[in-house]
Amino acid sequence: MPGEILEEDKMEKNPDFQHAQWKFLLETPEFKNDTATAKSLLDAIKTDDMAPYYEVVCKDLGWNVDATLLAEMKAKNEKKLKEIDDQITDAEKNLGSTEVREAYFAKFNYLCRIGNKTASESAFRLCFEKTVGNGNRLDLIFQMIRIGLFFNDLDITTRNLDKARSLVEEGGDWDRRNRLKVYEGLHSLSIRDFQKATTNLLDTVSTFTCYEIIDYETFITYVVLCGMLTLERTKLKAKVSRLIPYPFCAKIFVTVVGIVFSSLNFALRSSGRSLR
User: Fold this and answer.
1) For helices 17-26 and 134-150, what crossing angle results, to 10°?
2) How far, in Å, CA of 12 to CA of 4, rounded?
3) Quick check: pTM over 0.85?
């Protein structure tokens, strides 16, 4: 199991990948009419006034746009962004470089939270210019990578992974080097490069701290699934069993077997056959 990390060392879940997971499920045949999942996603959108993301969701899922709700959320977004812009102006006129950077980061962070991908990129560039130190810059890049993964935007993801690799090579610390491996592994998984995904994810099993993007149990499930696709059975058993305590490992293998058989059964049923 990974080591414990202090609360203050945890990265914020921004964007929150649970939202993307609900949206993904609603795009599948099994869940497209699932009212509980749809309600969970809509409630989360309302909680954070995610007007830009609401428009994306309505377009992609074929939802009817609630014009009143959208107008209310947009008004709240505009009010908050005006407040942040005023803070930026005040910081640039009256305060130091640290406060200026914090104000720019507040804008970038808020745009990420409401799901405004395009504006997040612009705010990222401005914030990056105001940020010094490889560590702080890497943290910004990691958040931009999360935006890319959240929206399944290959261009944003790959460009920022390249930036992160360059900064890590210049002197990234242990935690950020491991974080980059997890992000690279998840990106490789998303583009079906299972060999690279297996290598990166296995390397970070015992040092995993990336709770801002994925929970540990799901992470290990991905490790096992990738390993099953790319490793010989003896190597899979040796590597996974060595890194993961047996009771937890056994639970994950049961989950993975269930996923495999469910997927196989769905594929067979789609062709008019069944495992039964």
Assistant:
1) 20
2) 16
3) yes
